[in-house]
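Following up on my earlier thread - several people asked me to post the actual chain instead of describing it. Fair enough. Here it is, all 384 residues.
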Amino acid sequence: MKRNLRGLTCAILSISLLTVMAGAAMAPALGAIQAHFLDQNPMTVQLIVSLPALFIIATTLAFRPLCRLMKTRTLALIGLALYVLAGAGAFLSDDIATILVLRALLGVSVGMIMPLSTGLLSFYFPPEEQSRLMGLSAAMNQMGGVVATLLAGLLATVEWRYAFLVYLSGLPAAALVAALLPNDRLASHGSGFKVSTLLRFHPSVTAMFFVMILFFVYPTNFALTAQQHRITPLAITLIMVGLDVVAFAIGLAFGWLMTHCRRQMKYAAPLFFLGGYAVLAFTGGMWGMVAGSALLGLANGAGVPYINTIASIKGGREAAVTVMPLISAALYLGQFFSPLIVGPLSQAVGGANAPYIVAMALAVLFLLQTFLTRKHHALPPEAQ
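Reply from S.P.:
Thanks for posting it. Predicted structure:
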């Protein structure tokens, strides 16, 4: 039995390694892709990164009907097959329209597998195990992002097409899923998105939206502001990778943290976001950038698994088809809307560090939302 549970955990965590690669992995290759498509509007090329998010959101909201049609292993394998074919298939194309269609299909594939990466943990494992496993899932997500981003950047130096080969990483995950994931049915009835479900789980869904809006202020602004402090491109890259390493370490330690300081963890993400952006906004130099980035790594590393843990425990075995698709949709909505919200507000504030000041204000709102919605939340003791 232990061997089966270990294998099941490996299969589920292998999916967690892949989900973050949908858009962000291609960011280092955008320069090379833009250089090839000089006749295209730069915004069209940037859709290679942002377009998958819209299709992930749409697919996750239809996740329950998909679960009625297919059992878990079948759904995961179809999603992973589409992930590999759509992701790596762009390697074979020299047409921007075809590439964007494939990126949309990649978004559909991630929308199929992402709720499984967390929802299956609540389906197969008891509540007392879920904080540790949600931490591991978040850690694997961070590791996948670091490896995919670095690998895509290196492959793009050969030729821009080669960056898309990073999506072949879905093949080992598919092998693990085929061998180790049971083919159970998560839902036999019910429709897709319901307002009543959103109202029930709105604290976790809203919190994930806040986490992603706040976190994505960093990758969209850090390189520019750091250059103004005369930090070299190599140092900027190392600092940004260091943030992911910090978040990865927090994910590994998350089970221990929830055991020893469970009640305080609800405030970790908003407070670390507030502190991190305050350091970036009001200090300068290398060490200020390092300290601010580390605090943001702590915020992201604690926030994502905490939200997933609370939501999964409250949702119970039904979490995979109720709250987890909503959490996944909120995650990508936050990524998509972050620049649309923070950009105009930053222009109104003015100044080089305006995005960080806006982020501080948003972190205060996140802290208030956490206080109002978590303080009297009726959850089991392990979820408080």
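The chain is about 80% helix and 0% strand. That should answer part of your original question.
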